[in-house]
Amino acid sequence: MRILTPWERGLLAIFLVTLVLNLVFVPEFLTLRNQINLFQLSIEKIIVALIMALIIINAEIDLSVASVMGLSAAIFGYLVSIGVDGRFAIMACLAAGLLAGLVNAFLSARLGIPSLVVTLAMLIGFRGLARVLVKDNSLGDFPTWFTDLGQKGFLGPIPLSLWIFVILLVVFGVLLHRTTFGRQVFIIGTSADVARFSGLNVARVKTQLFLMSGLVSAFAGLLYAARLGSVRGDSGVGFELDIITMVLMGGVSIFGGKGSMTGVVLSILIILNLRNGMGLMNITGHMQTGVIGLLLIGSVLLPNIVSGLRGRRETS
After folding, report:
1. Gyration radius of the chain's alpha carbons
2. Does pTM top 0.85 for this prediction?
3. b or e along 244-280 (b: 16 or more beta carbons within 10 Å of the residue's beta carbon)?
4. The pLDDT of residue 171 is above 80
5. pLDDT digits (tens, 9 = 90+) for 201-210
């Protein structure tokens, strides 16, 4: 059985404290409906956080994930609005996600442009395409079977999207920690040059990760459209902040080569419980975003401060 790292033990302690505070100050916190809402209202973010963990461990980043979500939702809304069958529209959205991932992969993994620059540009570009499709409109009137997938329970009161998250968590957890591909992700994230000298196809691994990111983000965009029952050109704006915070706070190093799904899951639980508790206590969305932003800063700075102190102690 895997033993928790010191960082993961700290996350577990924070999660338990957050849980206790919610139980004390929020009477309706423990109800089944609220526990489902806790996950459902952020389900698209936590799904994308799973693949984002692999990308950052690989020493890359994808800032375009929320824009790909928004573009996927916009494509679905546009196609349905002009009479295209919903099932074909879904396939078109997933294909668009793969294409978006391919663009990121080609520019970053093949041409060598830093993924921070590439995906920042694509964040703007994909969002622009979504706004061109939808303009200032709000598109809805989706097929009932589609909205039911995002709004109604599946196998009991639990929505389909939450079951999908659990399945993807297991898949990505096994992929990262129990496969050759996962070991390659860690090795490349630690040192791409060493990986190349060892005979690993670095560009291929990075390409596969960006393709998975595009596909998962497009799928999350469809879930978002199904949950809300309508789409706009600004769907998912700012989601990348929460997604990256979940990953970095989970102990995944921004410099790559380090991290685990266990830490990411604990981080997800902390952030979801914080947002839920603050929301039920009528704390404004701006204040919630500020708290999440502080968590992001702390999750980046604290590990480096600790490493620096250890380095000084060892050299003294």
Report:
1. 20
2. yes
3. bbbbbbbbbbbebbbbbbbbbbbbbbbbbbbbbbbbb
4. yes
5. 999 999 999 9
